[in-house]
Fold Small multi-drug export protein.
Amino acid sequence: MDSIVQSIVTALSGKISKELIVFLVSMVPLLELRGSILAAGLMKMSFFPSYIAAVLGNMLPIPFILLFIEKIFAWMKKSKRFHKIPDWLEKKALSKSAQIEKYGYLGLFLFVAIPLPGTGAWTGSLIAVLFGMKPKKSLLFIFLGVLTAGLIMSLLSFGVLKQLIS
């Protein structure tokens, strides 16, 4: 992930604002919030602007995923070219869904909030849809998870925790 983020930062630096770079990186699946905070660190951004840009960018696609992914997957499954992608994504998302299945919306929050590989707003949204969770309530818990994950990643990336421990 580091090399992808570095490539994006290098390609876009000087062409658009640092905040916009962080915003765009946070919208990319797999990179999401963790990648955007890494980009902010590479560009020596301060905590607050990078946190806001990362959270907003990470959240922008989520309502669309919650509302339209089932229709998109249905279309893709009928396509000769894309028919395998929805099954693969569903299988991958469901393999990471144990805590959501066990704890419901609290599990969804925790899944998004704890910034580990394979977790995040995109996968959390997909799992919420696959489990038939209510979109508005899912959006709230995903948003709270993104806020928390952003805070955790920012504290770690900006060395605030290191300063508190020392």
